[in-house]
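User: Hey, my collaborator sent me this sequence without any context and asked if I could get a structure. I don't really work with proteins. Can you help?
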Amino acid sequence: MLKNYDVLCILSNALNKNCELNLKSRARVDLAAKIYSKQVKKPKLIVSGWKYRKDCNLSLADTFENYLIKKKYVSKKDIFKEHKPRDTIGEAIFCFRRINKIKNIKKLCVITHKSHLKRARYIFNYIFNNKYKIKFECVDEYISEKIKNNESKSLINFKKTFKDINKGDINKIMEIVLNKHPNYNGTNYNKVNLNVFKS
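Assistant: No problem. I've predicted the 3D structure and written it out in structure-token form, which is a compact way to encode the shape of the chain:
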């Protein structure tokens, strides 16, 4: 059955030792490119990820864009980059904000791996709160018990962190992310300023 998405949101994973997309990131972008190539009306692609490696010149988002243009012949005009996300919650937030700026968007496809599906679906549905139709396309994989446990713990932590915040309340969600999330509040990495995050 032919896909008919307006936007493809490709969730990032990491870069390899050569500052190129690692296997998981490349598998996701390859799946996105396959969907893109088959649609008559080309969807927009949102790629995200910050510059977390001091030894790499480019951010994850920039590396995704380069791969799509040079390896998959995707038009640059169809690619939107988000440099602020550091994880899935950040990707969901900025995907939502970006889509709100694009006209005539109804159907979104989020692309990730099978092991990440349950958590990604919960987070995106929490952020988007039924504002758009969201479908998920997944790269198949073997899922070890360790990965299952890590994903389960991450989802439990997410639910605890946002238990008092209504679905879709993007401003409150962003404030909680910056104040309580270790990837943004200075615990794991440099603290992100609220005004910079919202800009």
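In plain terms: The chain has one domain: 7-160. You can pass these tokens on to your collaborator as they are.
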